[in-house]
């Protein structure tokens, strides 16, 4: 069993490669599948690059005025997509599943359940996701994040009526939910994204994030309720409830895209990349803080 | 307030499903929720032809909505155990009980609904009233075993449909740091049905369902509500008559 798990992990690691190189992974053989994406990183271009001499007054206003600050640097985000045929088929399947089944059900649900109740249901399921966030924080040695998560879970379960309400996020308590999972934990260990993968029902993923999908199943307390149709039923309720709160988001992305599959892939990769970046920044800030504290205590 | 408490001290056993809380709501003046988790230990005397002492440990979660510093409605859901002292005491020398003489049963669900109103007399003093009722959704069951005239027996005693309703008046003083001290009298009624699965000579219960009612109808209560940091409140309350009951709750104001 151990060797089986080890070989799976090795496969994920080898398929993923190093995380810091994931942005520049070249698509194997299929260059079409490797999509360059502009990412707004809020970095101003040097004046030499932007001050292109022109007589156009609008162009001058753009360069010299307030818009000059908004000029962004382009960063290429790429991911290998060797299973594009399979992925596109799964994307179509998920697309139909959404439009033919999930959306109509979610719209009906939205009609009969008022928004505050749906937000409460969302809070309840988010609260149940505590084990995976807590474990991920611990595995990333983010003990402050783990403590925040434990505090959130305690407060929301006890005073939030089993998690239906979210008093932990109030201004007074300010215990923010840790945006982390096992995929990000693997990323912090240096495991790269790997190739793009679309799972039926579960949607966009990668070998690395598939570990997260499995972790979410095993660390969800609802998965251990018997008989099997209870956890399945609660999962359906969770998905329908979540969808009812975001009807229109997917449609907007699809409408705006020339190729919805590529748009979804890029959105997913950018989203994950930003999460990793945020996590790294937080870890860096914590390291600086720790260093400062150590220096202070050394000076004393 | 202690005088008020002592006036009611000799009037019988106290019972209620959890503390009554301060007469004035802790919700925001504009209106809002507050939630709490609480623990209560209580004793009460029930009687039919004989008297029985009921002891309960209760843990509950409460959600309340109140406003204008004057009114509040609340609901609780909780679990409670039940011990009835000497429920299986034999009054016949030929009936020998080999099991525990006390009726004991573990956690069963109960629910409570209540409402309270408060009238401030001035910035410090105020008076309020409340109405609170509880019902136990599940029955309590315990087995008794022994011999009756040499023949072994086992039987189950079921206590079902336990409920109570309480009405009280509370006098409140607001001390510095918004600490609320309160006390007052209350009246109540409790009832439960009980029956044994077999008729055993020498036991007080039989197969016929009997109704147990609270022996006393009034009691007194006193408590304190202390604001803690970050919207939390601590409420400690005692109720006293023949026996002492007490409870504590930590609330959070949204």
Question: How would you describe this structure to a colleague?
Answer:
- The complex is a heterodimer of chains A (300) and B (254).
- By secondary structure, chain A is mainly alpha-helical.
- Chain A has one domain (17-25, 35-282).
- Chain A has twelve helices and two strands; from the N terminus they run ααααααααββαααα.
- Chain A has a two-stranded antiparallel ribbon with strand order 1-2.
- In chain A, α5 crosses α10 (229-244).
- The longest helix of chain A is centred in the C-terminal third of the chain and has 40 residues, at 260-299.
- The N and C termini of chain A lie far apart (52 Å).
- Residues 8-55 and 65-74 of chain A have low confidence and may be disordered.
- By secondary structure, chain B is mostly beta strands.
- Chain B has a single domain (2-253), classed as Porin (Beta Barrel), CATH 2.40.160.20.
- Helix content of chain B is 2%, strand content 65%.
- Chain B contains one helix and 13 strands.
- Chain B has one helix spanning 2-7, and strands spanning 32-47, 51-67, 71-84, 95-97, 103-120, 125-136, 140-148, 151-175, 179-196, 210-214, 218-227, 232-240, 244-253.
- In chain B, strands 1, 2, 3, 4, 5, 6, 7, 8, 9, 10, 11, 12 and 13 form a 13-stranded antiparallel sheet that branches.
- In chain B, a hairpin with a 2-residue loop joins β7 and β8 (151-175).
- Chain B is elongated and about 70 Å long.
- Mean pLDDT of chain B is 88; it is low at 1-14.
- Classes of the chains: A mainly alpha (300), B mainly beta (254).
- The A-B interface holds A 155, 158-162, 165, 167, 170, 172-173 and B 33, 35-37, 61, 63, 230-231, 250-252, 254.
């Amino acid at each position: 069993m151990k060797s089986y798990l080890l070989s799976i992990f090795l496969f994920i690691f080898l398929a993923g490669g190093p995380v810091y190189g994931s942005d520049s992974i070249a698509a194997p053989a299929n260059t079409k599948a490797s999509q360059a994406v502009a990412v707004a990183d809020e970095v101003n271009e040097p004046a030499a690059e932007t001050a292109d001499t022109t007589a156009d007054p609008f162009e001058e206003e753009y360069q010299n005025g307030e818009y000059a600050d908004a000029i962004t640097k382009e960063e290429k985000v790429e991911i290998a997509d060797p299973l594009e045929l399979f992925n596109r088929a799964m994307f179509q399947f998920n697309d139909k599943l959404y439009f033919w089944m999930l959306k109509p059900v979610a719209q009906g649900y939205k009609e009969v359940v008022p928004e505050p109740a749906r937000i409460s249901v969302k809070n309840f399921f988010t609260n149940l996701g505590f084990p995976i966030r807590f474990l991920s924080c611990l595995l990333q040695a983010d003990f402050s994040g783990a403590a925040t998560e434990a505090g959130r879970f305690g407060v929301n379960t006890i005073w939030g009526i089993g998690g239906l309400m979210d008093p932990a996020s109030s201004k007074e308590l300010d215990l923010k939910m840790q945006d982390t999972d096992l995929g990000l934990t693997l990323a912090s260990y240096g495991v790269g994204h790997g190739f793009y993968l679309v799972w039926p029902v579960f949607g966009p993923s990668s070998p690395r994030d598939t570990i997260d999908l499995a972790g979410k199943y095993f660390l969800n307390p609802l998965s251990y309720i018997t008989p099997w149709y209870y956890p399945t039923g609660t999962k359906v309720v969770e998905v329908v409830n979540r969808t009812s709160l975001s009807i229109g988001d997917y449609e907007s992305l699809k409408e705006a895209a020339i190729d919805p599959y590529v748009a979804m892939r890029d959105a997913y990769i950018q989203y994950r990349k930003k999460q990793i970046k945020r996590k790294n920044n937080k870890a860096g800030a914590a390291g600086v803080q720790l260093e400062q504290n150590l220096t202070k205590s050394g000076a004393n | 307030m202690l005088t008020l408490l002592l006036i009611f001290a000799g009037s019988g056993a106290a019972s209620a499903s959890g503390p009554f809380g301060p007469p004035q709501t802790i919700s925001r003046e504009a209106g809002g929720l507050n939630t709490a988790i609480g623990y209560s230990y209580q004793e009460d005397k029930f009687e039919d032809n004989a008297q029985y002492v009921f002891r309960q440990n209760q843990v509950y979660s409460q959600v309340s909505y109140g406003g204008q510093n004057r009114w509040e409605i609340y609901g609780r859901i909780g679990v409670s155990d039940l011990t009835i002292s000497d429920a299986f005491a034999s009054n016949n020398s030929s009936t020998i009980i080999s099991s525990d003489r006390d009726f004991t049963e573990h956690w069963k669900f109960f629910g409570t609904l209540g409402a309270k109103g408060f009238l401030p007399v001035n910035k410090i003093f105020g008076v309020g009233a409340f109405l609170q009722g509880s019902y136990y959704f599940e029955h309590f069951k315990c087995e008794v075993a022994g011999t009756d005239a040499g023949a072994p027996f086992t039987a189950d005693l079921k206590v079902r449909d336990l409920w109570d309703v309480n009405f009280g008046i509370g006098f409140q003083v607001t001390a510095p740091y918004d600490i609320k001290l309160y006390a007052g009298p209350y009246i109540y009624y409790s009832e439960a049905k009980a029956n044994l699965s077999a008729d055993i000579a020498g036991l007080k219960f039989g197969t016929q369902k009997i109704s147990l009612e609270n022996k006393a109808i009034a009691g007194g209560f006193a408590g304190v509500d202390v604001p803690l940091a970050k919207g939390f409140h601590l409420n400690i309350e005692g109720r006293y008559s023949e026996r002492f009951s007490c409870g504590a709750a930590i609330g959070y104001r949204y």
